[in-house]
Known about the structure:
Layout: H1 37-41, E1 42-49, E2 52-57, E3 62-65, E4 70-71, H2 78-84, E5 88-92, H3 99-105, E6 109-111, H4 122-131, E7 135-138, H5 144-147, E8 153-157, H6 168-181, E9 187-192, H7 193-198, H8 201-208, E10 213-217, E11 230-231, E12 236-237, H9 238-250, E13 255-260, H10 277-289, E14 294-298, H11 313-328, H12 330-333, E15 337-340, E16 346-353, E17 356-363, E18 369-371, E19 374-376, E20 381-384, H13 409-416
Parallel strand pairs: 5-6, 5-14, 6-7, 7-8, 8-9, 9-10, 10-13, 13-14
Antiparallel strand pairs: 1-2, 2-3, 4-15, 11-12, 15-16, 16-17, 17-20, 18-19
Amino acid sequence: MTERTSCLPSRHRPRVRATRDTPARYSHHRATGGIARRAATIVRCRQTGGGRGEQVSRTGERIDSGTRCSNSAATPGGAALSRATGFVIGVFDQPSYTFPKWSSRGINTVINYQSLSGTVPFSTWHDALVQDHLMAIRPPVGDPSQDAHDPALLAWMQPDEPELNHEQALVQANYRAWHAAAPQIPVWLNVSGGSVAKETQSELAPYLSSADWISDDIYPVTGWDQPGGLDLNEEGDWIGGTLNTLAGWSGRKPQLQIVETSNQQLSWIPNSRGVTPDEFRGSVWVSVIHGAKGVIYFPQSFGSGFSYDGTPDDVVAEMTKVDAQLKQWSTVLLAPGHMTVVPKPFEQATRALNGRTYVITLNFSHSPAELNGVSYAPYQVRITTPSGLPAVPPQSRFDSVRGPRRWSARRLENRRA
């Protein structure tokens, strides 16, 4: 997901010209993963009893009281998500010819229908989706009441970051029309991480109310050259802080977290870099701990030439490992639970499933650390029993996603024509 740079001083805003191989929206809608002033100071949730909590700064100051810091079981649209894929592992806006590559890395969901400037018909794109057993989050194609029958459709997609373009009326109209046509299909909307920082709950409320699932994009490393935003010993937890804020503002709607995987080579960050494999792993698991129902990878790269996938080989290798873990633990990750208080630089949460409690513990820092006599490498995660013994993942029916075999995308194209 992309985030425009309107929150940056004008001298830092990029001037980008569209090229033949660059999607049109990228010519004005670049991926900065805007720093959240709110998220920059939030490092964890502090439980306050009754399953509720509050966001706490590095100095212990309460920032946003009343935010629920648990992975609630009763969330709108959550049941539909669990039935469809389990934990969502998505990638943003990729051409259909890349689907085999992404499937081999463990992706189960593609975000957006990429037509390559109208040269790839929806039926061709959809055939590739089916071939690689992938699900999709995309805008409706043709008549929504007919489109809803697509077994590969996970959710409908609102315009990306609509608050930056003041598209309140559009997303509200979409939501009403799509729900009237097929109320069983969830609607998903992504907001800029920077918007969560600089705008108020009331300003974002019309957008958050126009979706059943929500997400944000925030990229501390490649978007802001602030790797300390991925370290509780430094700037804190920007990802977790933004997730916590949106959880409170949206009424606990299911969230999917956008994660950076590449060096986006943004013009206003000289000598930029992308996340390391360790930072990537930490970004994913801190999203899980803060209650995300899925992650979506943003692998695009800009700079001298646009690339749909700038993910380096070492991050690809780590991604493949992490995605396998997410599938293995899918039913546990989607189970109800809550965050628990642990010393910095650790983050921890529990999940309860079939009478068993699982404890997810992450060293969210660039340095080795120790908790309860157990050593953790940087960004290492452990899933254990409450007594600290290694937990065994339950059998999951989400080890793979099987796409549809009998549904005609061409029928929709004919209706649209």
